[in-house]
Amino acid sequence: MSGLVQQIHDAVHGQTQPTVTVLSSLLAVEDALGYIPKEAVEFVAGFSNSTVNNVWAVASFYPNFRFEPPAEHLVEVCWGASCHLVGAMGVFKAVLDASGMADEGDTPDKRLTVRFNTCLGACSQAPVMSMDHHLAGRVNPELAAKNVANLLAQDGHAS
Amino acid sequence: MPPSFLEIGLEAARRWHELTAGERPWIRIGTALCGEAAGANAVVAAVESALESQGVSAEVSQVGCLGLCFAEPLLDVMLPSGHRVFYGNVNPENVAEIIATHVLGGTPVTAMALGYITDPDSDAPVPDGIPDLNQHPMRIWENRIALRNAGNIDPLDIYQYVANGGYQALHKSLTNLTPAGTLDEVKSSGLRGRGGAAFPTAVKWGFLAGNPAPEKYVLCNCEEGDPGAFNDKNILESDPNTLLEGVIIAGYATGASKGYIFIRHGHDGPIERCRAAVRQAQELGLLGENIMGSNFSYDVEIALTGDSYVAGEETALMEVIEGKRAMPRFRPPFPAAVGLFGKPTNINNVKTLSYVPEIISRGGEWFAGIGHDTSTGTAILCLSGALNYTGMVEVPLGINLKDVIYEAAGGIKDGKALKFLQTGGPLGGVLGADNIDVVLDFEVLRAAGAIVGSGGIIAADESTCVVDLTRSLIAFCQYESCGKCFPCRMGMSHLLEVLERICDLEGTDEDLTLMRSIGENMQAGSLCGHGQLGFNPVSSALRYFRPEFETHIVERKCPTGICTMPRFSPALSRR
To answer: Last residue of a domain, which of B318, B346, B368?
Structure first.
């Protein structure tokens, strides 16, 4: 078994909740690897007595799944209505400018992914962004740019 | 053998006494999602390091949210047998002074204190020169039922919940009430669903109770994808046992064999705190076989969904638990007949179930005495946007929306004027500033073109553009359309195209009529609420702000200039 398939095997078999499904297995793989490699689609299909077609149908439906290895860091900017009304567009522009991007996605050097999030769940602290899943509220364009710079100054995860 | 409920209660009382009247001060910091976003994690670290460097022994708990999100990070210090003193907008730099002066020195830092809350068991004098926090505008309108413990107890410690009356309602149901008697209490309370539809809960439970199948499910919906609403996640983070007790009682009343609590993957705080509650309840025998020595056996599992707004629709939710794409099913058959894994199923929102323990403890009549007409009980409102006091309040239904905005939420920030409120989530509607003199009541608000929905209220000031907000809401609805029904899938895309044209100041005279026609088709031809209600943001905006749309179209001008600024929409869409 290759290292990658072993990791997928461990993630899928490591689920402890009673109800194990195609989706729960995909979420377990994403938690372990940060993405869904094509080997995982095949593995989950076999494990769930399903088909590659069906597993791909589920995986491709949910935008939290990505299908290539993650960048070192992830910045999300909330575009829910609360954040939108108090300046999320300006925050998003600042984040893009600070990361040298024109729109959401990965930087070419894979140091950073920039993403919209439909709601980060802290509306009372709008506008909200998150750096590697750590929330920061009441941000403005200057703070947002600083947050991105601070993140890029850190070492990434082991890759 | 798990301990008896009496033994659990005695242990809980012993621990609570030690915590509140023992030797050590008790420091509480709110670290729900709102607290985290305000920087509470850094405050926790600063508190722990200050205690260590100053050689002070104190109990430190990470609690949920008191509702005063605008003042977070919120640090709450209680000396042994004393009252609680709250410090607002604390940062790591001023923690050391609070620890030195208050925790070690015994004197509150008056200048930095936001307010105090008296402890009912303390006979200490109230602190001098510090306001009573219960007189804060955000708290005086409140009647906390589902949120009674929020911000007060450690959500990771089931004993603290028990010490504050927790699981008494379950005990009462199992020992004094039959399932039918439990259902009767909920019926007399007049409780209606808080997920948006406001359907009578007892009627829904009755459908499942009347089904004799041996395997039946109760599902609790905490998908909560509504931007502007965070009360479900907040309950899970602040007091997960209130919800869990409600889920167990619902199972008893309906004869269900298992419950599921359904949360969006990635919301780690709510997931972890809820998991801890389930695990501890299992350890104490409050879940499992023969609960509290009764014939009732029941377990609860936490199920996660990927990112999908439609996953919160009740039949789509069942598809997700089965591991499929979040797409609604045809009805009939209704879930109470054929639901999760083909078994009879009942689905309720987090808030709905979180009222149940107090309804059983205090009686349905008590709950029915709160509220307005057939809208009984309280509303748990999430206040966000351009308000002085953003946060979460639990207020009796029947309160005037104007009072919520100008009194409880302290009015509009920076002295600006209110332009409109957006209520009830993206499928809700907007209310013009001149039309908010209405009482909070499910029917009244619906007649005004908005809904209570899940309780989100977003305030927009005069600098915002209503056409821009409508475009953003429809962009959300388009992004989140699951794609199953073409009227919704194509209608949302088409609506967004028209709204982007209007925002680009390139709209045509026919566009408003065109949108209405698209909206009517979506409403008539979609399977679930997403498409059926998807035109609400546009129709309610047109109802109050038609001239602003016309200015964009006819004069080719955005009065606030917002539409001429850079805007971004997600590049990803559902494949």
So the answer is: B368
Identify the bridge partners of residue A73 per DSSP, sorted by sequence position.
Answer: A112
Residue B5 included in any domain: no
B411: closest CA among B438, B435, B390? Answer: B390
3-class DSSP string for B348-362: EEHHHHHHHHHHHHH
Q: What letter represents residue B159's amino acid?
A: Y
Same domain, A10 and A80: no
Task: Please state the ipTM of this predicted complex.
Answer: 0.95
- pLDDT of A147 higher than 80: yes
* Final residue belonging to a domain, choices A38, A61, A84: A61
Domain that holds residue B433: 375-461
**Cα torsion A83, A136, B354, B403: sign:** negative
**Do residues B67 and B178 share a domain?**
no
Do A51 and A83 belong together in one domain? no
A27: domain range? 3-61
Mean pLDDT, rounded, for B58-74: 98
**Nearest C-alpha of chain B: how many angstroms from A135?**
5
Task: Say whether both B446 and B510 belong to one domain.
Answer: no
Q: pLDDT for B396-422, tens place per residue?
A: 999 999 999 999 999 999 999 999 999
Q: What DSSP letter does each residue of B11-78 carry, written as one string?
A: HHHHHHHHHHHSSS-EEEEE-SHHHHHHTHHHHHHHHHHHHHHTT---EEEEE---S-GGG-S-EEEE
B384 vs A48: CB contact, 8 Å cut-off?
no
Q: What is the pLDDT of residues B127-147, one digit of tens each?
A: 999 999 999 999 999 999 999
CA distance B302 to B273: 11
CB contact under 8 A, B323 and A22: yes
Establish if B413 belongs to a structural domain: yes
Using only C-alpha atoms, what is the Rg of chain A? 18
User: A129 - beta bridge partners?
Assistant: A77, A136
The answer to whether residue A103 is domain-embedded is yes
- Domain shared by B362 and B379, yes or no: no
Residues of A in contact with B69 (CB under 8 A): 124-125
Which parts of chain A fold into alpha helices (H)? Answer: 3-13, 22-33, 38-47, 52-61, 81-85, 88-99, 141-153
Instruction: Please state whether the peptide bond connecting residue B333 to the residue before it is cis, i.e. omega within 30 degrees of 0.
Output: yes
Is A68 among the domain residues?
no
Q: Does A90 lie in the same domain as A132?
A: yes
- Asked if residue B409 and residue B361 are part of one domain, the reply reads no
Is A89's CB within 8 Å of B320's CB? no
Residue A66 counted as domain residue:
no
pLDDT higher than threshold 70 for residue B575: no
CA–CA min distance B480, chain A (Å): 9
CA distance B167 to B162: 6
Tokens describing residue B249: 């009682």
Q: What residues of A are in contact with residue B473 (Cβ under 8 Å)?
A: 81
The percent of residues in chain B predicted with pLDDT above 90, rounded, is: 93
Contact criterion met (CB below 8 Å) for B244 and B146: no
B464 vs A contacts (CB less than 8 Å): 85
Average pLDDT over residues B530-547: 95
Helices (H), B255-349: 268-283, 314-321
At A150, the pLDDT band (50, 70, 90 cuts) reads very high
Interchain proximity B229–A134, CB inside 8 Å: no
Question: Which secondary structure element, helix H or strand E, spans residue B8, and what is its range?
Answer: helix B5-21
The backbone region for B220, taken as left when phi is positive above 0, alpha when psi lies in -120 to 50, beta otherwise, is beta
Is residue A67 a part of any domain in this protein? no
Query: Does A53 lie in the same domain as A122?
Result: no
CB contact under 8 A, A89 and B567: yes
Smallest CA–CA distance, residue A1 to chain B, in Å, is 26
